[in-house]
Recover the amino acids of this structure.
């Protein structure tokens, strides 16, 4: 496919900008595409198209909007293998990991979002007045590279269903699947300008969007660092802003709990996307007098994950997504050793000349004040931290600047009691497993706002009080 194009106002156009950005396959370092580094004219065109489209889209019958999103979902089902192949190449996933969790759950989420909006009351009678919910206007959706399709879907589908229009800027590292999504929009025949795609770096194109006078909402998912800048710029222009940021989530194994289950679930979150999942349970909190047994279990289970070339076999965990990630994760592993943590499985990654491969690393004897316990490493690195008693476990779990997710494995009543005291936006208890029907987002530095669930729609609606 020729990627030197943008999708604006219902058609593919050549960018005004002559600059391009290379997209690299992290599994072999081949350059697989070049995308436009959009300039101000390109961004203006996209925002103007979205603004014009909003004039009619906001009043479009809800059933018509739902019908179009259903058609989009069906077209995406037709294209799901293509999208998975693209994600294999741009993110370094094996085919099965590209399909699930990268593609299929988000196509399913579209059906959940449709169900939510069908039952949503846009007007509510109150005591002597009415509250009416109305869309904002143009939404700039700025997304990260780690779930290149999913993070887009979580923003744009609720935003569109309630009558906003979109300018999407995907991550410049994994922008290609967004092109296939734009093709689906094109095929389905959404009104011109309802969905627009621009590409480029965050510091340039993302910044232009956050500063654009005709952007009404900035919906951002990414790093805390990026979120701070996006938040600042958006607030300067009095825009609504939502921030979905990073995490350093704890999984607490309580005495008497199912350790097998807890370790399996924690390791899946830390390893399956090579550690590049915002809600991964990277801190494993374990009772101090059962540390040795748990360490052995963690190591034995870690050995079962196959890391390597994602094209070589199914269910193999691929490389990190970029050189930046490789260097960052490597330096954290070194830092962990310097800080006195004990590496009981894994090694310091050596060479990235043939791809950004990093195997799983298990650290024990980690204390919660170490950098490896405090910072989001975003690699396949898990830290075992001991606690003395339940209160100590809660204290350690909450002793973090983040608050995205957490998990508790233990006897039901005690596990619920502990879960209620964890300061995080999503908690799983024992067999529990999150879905997109529920809100997702962070406490503390993990963000402002929610995606998914009813709250994920309300992020794109403002309230009008009507007295009559
Ligand atoms: P990032 O902050 O570098 O970039 C995210 C997006 O924002 C990209 O599209 C980027 O181009 C753009 N951007 C960067 N700086 C910008 C600026 N100043 N103005 C406007 N746009 C800007 O993050 P990343 O490395 O792509 O993603 C990884 C991070 O995302 C991790 O911290 C991860 O935890 C987080 N994340 C959070 C969630 C969540 O739902 N909470 C989900 C996925 C990823």
């Amino acid at each position: 496919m020729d990627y030197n194009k943008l999708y604006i106002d219902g058609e593919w156009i050549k960018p005004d900008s002559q600059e391009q950005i290379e997209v690299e396959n992290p599994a072999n370092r081949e350059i697989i595409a070049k995308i436009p580094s959009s300039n101000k004219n390109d961004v203006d065109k996209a925002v103007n198209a979205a603004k014009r489209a909003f004039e009619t889209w906001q009043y479009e019958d809800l059933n018509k909007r739902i019908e179009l999103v259903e058609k989009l979902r069906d077209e995406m089902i037709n294209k799901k293998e293509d999208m998975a192949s693209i994600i294999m190449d741009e993110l370094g996933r094996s085919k099965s990991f590209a399909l699930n969790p990268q593609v299929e759950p988000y196509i399913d989420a579209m059906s959940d979002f449709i169900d939510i909006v069908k039952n949503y009351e846009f007007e509510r009678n109150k005591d002597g007045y009415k509250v009416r919910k109305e869309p904002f206007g143009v939404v700039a959706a700025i997304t990260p590279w780690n779930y290149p399709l999913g993070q887009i879907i979580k923003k744009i589908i609720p935003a569109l269903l309630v009558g906003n229009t979109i300018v999407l800027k995907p991550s410049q590292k994994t922008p290609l699947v967004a092109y296939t999504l734009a093709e689906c929009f094109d095929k389905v025949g959404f009104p011109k300008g309802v969905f627009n795609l621009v590409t480029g770096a965050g510091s340039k194109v993302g910044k232009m969007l956050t500063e654009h006078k005709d952007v009404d909402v900035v919906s951002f998912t990414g790093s805390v660092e990026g979120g701070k800048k996006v938040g600042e710029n958006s607030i300067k222009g009095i825009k609504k802003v939502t921030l979905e940021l990073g995490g350093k989530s704890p999984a607490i194994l309580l005495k008497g709990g199912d350790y097998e289950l807890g370790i399996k679930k924690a390791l899946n979150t830390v390893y399956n996307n090579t550690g590049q999942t915002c809600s991964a349970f990277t801190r494993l909190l374990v009772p101090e007098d059962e540390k040795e047994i748990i360490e052995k279990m963690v190591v034995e289970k870690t050995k079962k994950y196959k890391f390597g070339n994602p094209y070589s076999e199914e269910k193999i965990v691929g490389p990190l997504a970029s050189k930046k990630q490789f260097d960052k994760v490597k330096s954290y592993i070194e830092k962990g050793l310097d800080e006195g943590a004990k590496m009981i499985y894994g090694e310091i990654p050596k060479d990235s000349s043939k791809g950004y491969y990093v195997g799983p690393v298990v650290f024990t004897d980690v204390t919660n004040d170490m950098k490896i316990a405090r910072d989001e490493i975003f690699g396949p690195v898990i830290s075992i931290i001991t606690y003395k008693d339940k209160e100590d476990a809660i204290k350690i779990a909450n002793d973090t600047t983040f608050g995205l997710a957490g998990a508790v494995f233990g006897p039901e009543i005690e596990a619920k009691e502990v879960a209620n005291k964890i300061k995080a936006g999503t908690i799983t208890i024992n067999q529990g497993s999150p879905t997109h029907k529920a809100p997702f987002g962070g406490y503390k530095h993990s963000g402002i706002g929610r995606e998914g669930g009813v709250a994920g729609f309300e992020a794109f609606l403002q309230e009008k009080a009507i007295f009559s």
Summary: Residues 95-118 form the longest helix (24 residues). The chain has two domains: 6-245+446-466, 250-439. The longest strand covers residues 381-387. The CA atoms of residues 16 and 41 lie 7 Å apart.
